[in-house]
Task: structure prediction
Amino acid sequence: MHTTSTFIDRLNAAWTTRNSLLCVGLDPDPAKFPAHLSGGPDAIFEFCKAIVDATADLACAFKPQIAYFAARRAEDQLEALIAHIRERHPEVPVILDAKRGDIGSTAEQYAVEAFERYRADAVTVNPYMGRDSIEPYLAWSDRGVILLCRTSNPGGSDLQFLDVGGERLFERVARLAAGEWNHTGQLALVVGATFPAEIARVRELTGDMPLLVPGIGAQGGDVEATVKAGRSSAGSGLMINSSRAILYAGKGEDFAQAARAVALATRDAINRYR
Result:
């Protein structure tokens, strides 16, 4: 437990000390690993560890996606990876991208998984089931809970754009997250980089709430439009995630250095528009 600081505190510190709004997503796909790592028993850990060590000073957060580990029975390697980040790069918060969404005792168990088993600083949660699906995570007062709001996938509009009493559903989620749901100050939102106008609308509704923004890089989101739409009054407020473009920048033994080069270029591109 981080008894002296909250996820939001740690994120604010990382934005400042690293001069970075870049979140490095960790989505390890062994089929894309360099040949010298393929087939090893701890290949997922070794690959991600090398990426982490090469990019930690450029990142405001790391975001491991749990499915990439669980699908390959590599949850132990995810535990080891987060332990490594905490030991070697303790100033960089870890977001467990799990998109959990359930109520009551089940949500309590998901919270234990994220915050005790994996020791993540924050977790992504689907708010579709409402306030009581979010509350169990808030019992960990030093952790963050990042709610899906306006997602970057093409089908996001199927539900998120529905009119609900004169506003769109994603706007309702943003308003609730900035208001009555956020009584502990732990919430943040996911808003995709593929929709700059909606990022701007969420920022308008939520003040300086942190926003996790996937969709630049491989998904084609525009960095300039994203930053200008989403930056807070202090010129921060964003965790702009890039995963594949950084992870698979190189295919040889120097893959980590190649990842660093792309991470550095991405961080600097983001900073040009702050």
Observations:
- The first strand starts at residue 22 and ends at 26.
- The first helix runs from residue 7 to 18.
- The chain has twelve helices and ten strands.
- Residues 181 and 262 are 37 Å apart (CA to CA).
